Amino acid sequence: MSILVIGEALIDIVSSVGAPDRYAPGGAPANVALGLGRLGADVELLTDVGDDFHGGFLLAHLRESAVRVHARPTGSTSTARALLSADGSAEYEFSLRWAPDASLVESTDWAAIHVGSIAAFLSPGAAAVDSLLQRGRASSALLSFDPNIRPTIIGDHEQALARFESLASRVDVIKLSDIDADWLYPESSVESQLERIHEFGARLVALTCGSDGSILSTTSARVTVPAATVEVADTIGAGDSFMSSLIHDLQSPRSRIEDMDEDALKHLGENASRRAAITVGRTGADLPWASEENA
What we know:
Blueprint: E1 2-6, E2 10-15, E3 22-26, H1 28-38, E4 43-46, H2 53-64, E5 67-70, E6 79-84, E7 90-95, E8 110-116, H3 126-138, E9 142-146, H4 157-168, E10 173-177, H5 178-184, H6 190-199, E11 204-208, E12 214-217, E13 222-225, H7 238-249, H8 262-280
Parallel strand pairs: 1-4, 1-8, 2-6, 4-5, 8-9, 9-10, 10-11
Antiparallel strand pairs: 2-3, 6-7, 11-12, 12-13
Helix pairs in contact: 1-7, 7-8
Family: Belongs to the carbohydrate kinase PfkB family.
GO molecular function: ATP binding; kinase activity
Domain Carbohydrate kinase PfkB: 3-288
């Protein structure tokens, strides 16, 4: 069975002081699909791209990493301008549309469905997200969600929080950054944030904390995993690499979330951190291939 990823594919325009702009394929869900394809998973992506040069470039890029893309190209492709600071972190400015054609997805039987980022919040495409999650639940797929919060796009806090919590009540796995969690639940401790998310029904919550590592939590076990040591080129795609690693490794029959003790969670987190470090060590969302695992 395949893994279905639903969400935006766009062109990142990377700007840094004293250097010309760089253009690169991006979009958090597209990066997750790309990461899964490079790790050897059978993966498909429902997305929305234009019939322009950028759209053709994105489609070719994804297909080179064995991603089967469902899209009806028309109009202009979405863009995200990433403004890099001296430490390699990025802030984003977006020009977006999100209106995928869910009828292009014919399967009703998936191993997993992942939704994320802007696509989970932005209409009219959010309706396609809801419909496909419902189909995934009916087929017993593993459902995952990464909110990847972009406050300037997803609406006011109350509205976005309601949407986040609605989706959180329908999925098995949630990955979010500490920045996401602090925006959703300001002035709450990490412990309170994790417990709140578990209360909606998520069986596994992964909280990434940049250079401070990550926390992986189930209702019965919790571990802190250090970040892998790496010389940072930039952080673009790091969280997406972490997410694709989680989905990939949870496909193992031995990775039932209910059975995971602290050792199993630690192994899951260490794999994700190692793969994210490979991405951080090179420019852009250049996620690792399976052939690099033992390089």
